[in-house]
Amino acid sequence: MKHTEKIIDESLQGKALVKEQNKANNKKLFIESYGCQMNMNDSEIVASILAQEGFNTTQQLEDADLVLVNTCSIREKAEQTIRKRLQKYNAVKKKNAKMKVGVLGCMAERLKEKFLEEEKIVDLVVGPDAYRDLPNLLQEIDEGRDAVNVILSKDETYGDVAPVRLNNNGVSAFVSITRGCDNMCTFCVVPFTRGRERSRDPQSILEEIQSMADQNYKEITLLGQNVDSYLWYGGGLKKDFKKATEMAQATAVDFAQLLDMAATRFPKMRFRFSTSNPQDMSLDVIHTMAKHTNICKYIHLPVQSGSNKMLKAMNRQHTREEYMELVDNIYKIVPEMALSQDMIVGFCGETEKDHQDTLNLMEYVKYDFGFMFAYSERPGTLAAKKMEDDVSNEIKKRRLKEVIDLQLKHSLYRTQQHVGKTEEVLIEGESKKSSDHWKGRNTQNTVIVFPKEQYKIGDFVNVKVEDCTSATLIGTAVGYSDNN
Ligand code: SAH
Ligand code: F3S
Q1: How far apart are CA 404 and CA 3, in angstroms?
Q2: Nearest ligand for residue 191 CA
Q3: Domain range enclosing 459
Q4: Is 61 domain-assigned?
Q5: Is residue 39 part of a domain?
């Protein structure tokens, strides 16, 4: 597993996304996504909107009439990667004057019109809430004007756009349930680029899942910056909930209820969700997970640091002790639960003692896996404005290595616990290392590879685990599971 970039399917990162072609369409769209799963899902929404405008997707950059890059601002390195990509587009555009280039996503929102000045190649800048405006914006550039729409919306959730599933395995798909984030962690650019938090109508979520079930999808990941904070009370921002009518408040649907509804309505569908924020995670969610076998026993539960001083400076709304209590409760209610973390090392003012607190918390939880980062100052955040980025790069690097090494040790400890057991696996595709083997994941989200035999993609099979590395289980299928 790559431990420095947070993505579920690394094979999608930065690759052109393609879908089945609509023969009536005659324009070609090349769309690439960087960053989180939400960006991958947004690109599917964009492809759907543009399919109505006559665009089919292509994997050949050189053939494209329109090139779109869905961008990430989370760390400086992510932005540098995208600037490099723009240079590549520029070289191609020189040979194809008709080609238009658009920047979508978080960098578009952060840099706005500045993008057009800084990167001459860019024709179009569109923020995460403005994709419905793409047809108009394309018209603007056709008529020779610059086109920028970066307005963040109060209620945009694209609930009624059926995403075009790009480059996927036909087995697992993402469904967005919230957009934006209200948490204002002091290091994080997301609240600025994706706006305030709003939830999507449960009805439209269930309809999208139904359509995925009809197309034979087997696993849905519910997506949001902070899914545990999901709250539908008829529309509007989460922060305005208290102003809603009594009736709206009394009939509101929270995340535990949404999960329960989805898992009950679709007993054959596997459910996952990401990301959980410890401060918003309720025990109701854990009990709902315990109640349904089709909700996977895995929680991505970022903590960022094990030091109370750092948690406070980061504006995380919980202490180390509260986090440990939550973890205790999770393991008590669902002993087989897998947990993963996000950690930031070298945040402003982090001392050796704070760093030791992080290592020590990791030792307590023994996460199954993790995503670890050196702090990268982001313009506009409270940390950038008010705090000093005072940990040197050398120290950040050394601490990052220590955190990664410890995580690898814990990952191995966790994978070893599976050896000898027989576990249900959903087959997602071919193993990267061997065309004779399938790969899939167990309920805990650990990857398992095993000989293909007569099985096929989309089957649920029971696999006996015989061996492991720190990232992968190795086994043999012993038959179909009851879930087929
Ligand atoms: N709630 C979101 C978090 C998005 S950011 C979600 O859906 O996952 C993902 C991770 O990037 C954060 O948990 C944090 O560990 C890391 N991160 C965010 N801002 C960062 C920064 N300025 N420097 C380094 N890492 C950062
Ligand atoms: Fe960022 Fe904190 Fe929200 S990490 S996405 S502000 S929960």
Answers
A1: 7
A2: 2
A3: 422-480
A4: yes
A5: yes
Pocket test for ligand 1, best of 8, 72, 74, 301 (most atoms within 8 A of CB): 74
Global pTM?
0.92
> For residue 100, is it within any domain?
yes
Q: What is the pLDDT along the chain (484 residues), one digit of tens a residue?
A: 333 333 333 334 555 666 556 767 789 999 999 999 999 999 999 999 999 999 999 999 999 999 999 999 999 999 999 999 999 999 999 898 889 999 999 999 999 989 888 888 899 999 999 999 999 999 999 888 888 888 888 777 888 888 888 867 899 999 999 999 999 999 999 999 999 999 999 999 999 999 999 999 999 999 999 999 999 998 888 888 888 888 888 889 999 999 999 999 999 999 999 999 999 999 999 999 999 999 999 999 999 999 999 999 999 999 999 999 999 999 999 999 999 999 999 999 999 999 999 999 999 999 999 999 999 999 999 999 999 999 999 999 999 999 999 999 999 999 999 999 999 999 999 999 999 999 999 999 999 999 999 999 999 999 999 999 999 999 999 999 988 8
Closest Cα to atom 3 of ligand 1: 225
Number of domains in the chain: 2
The single-letter code of the amino acid at 53 is E
Q: Go through the chain and tell me how many residues it has.
A: 484
Residue 117 in domain: yes
CATH classification at residue 454: 2.40.50.140
Q: Which atom of ligand 2 is nearest to the CA of 316?
A: 2
Which residues approach ligand 1 with their CB closer than 6 A? 6, 36, 74-75, 187-188, 190, 225-226, 275, 302, 304, 342, 344, 373, 375-376, 378
Q: State which ligand 2 atom lies nearest to the alpha carbon of 184.
A: 6
Distances 192 to 38, 184, 228, 242 between C-alpha atoms, Å: 15, 9, 20, 23
Ligand 2 centroid–CA 154 distance in Å is: 18
- Quick check: 66 and 102 in contact, CB under 8 A? yes
Q: What residue's CA is closest to ligand 1, atom 10?
A: 342
* Ligand 2 neighbours (beta carbon < 6 A): 181, 183-185, 188, 190-191, 225-226, 277
Confirm if 181 and 172 have CB atoms less than 8 A apart: no
Of the candidates 149, 180, 215, which is a domain's last residue? 149
CATH at 43: 3.40.50.12160
Can you say whether the dihedral through the CA atoms of 230, 235, 239, 244 is positive or negative?
Answer: negative
Query: Can you name the residues that pair with 223 across neighbouring β-strands?
Result: 176, 274
Q: How far is the CA of 277 from the centre of ligand 2 (A)?
A: 8
Boundary (domain end) residue, out of 100, 122, 149: 149
Which residues 6+ apart lie within 8 Å of 207 measured at CB?
none
Q: Closest ligand 2 atom to the C-alpha of 181?
A: 3
Cis previous bond, 381, omega within 30: no
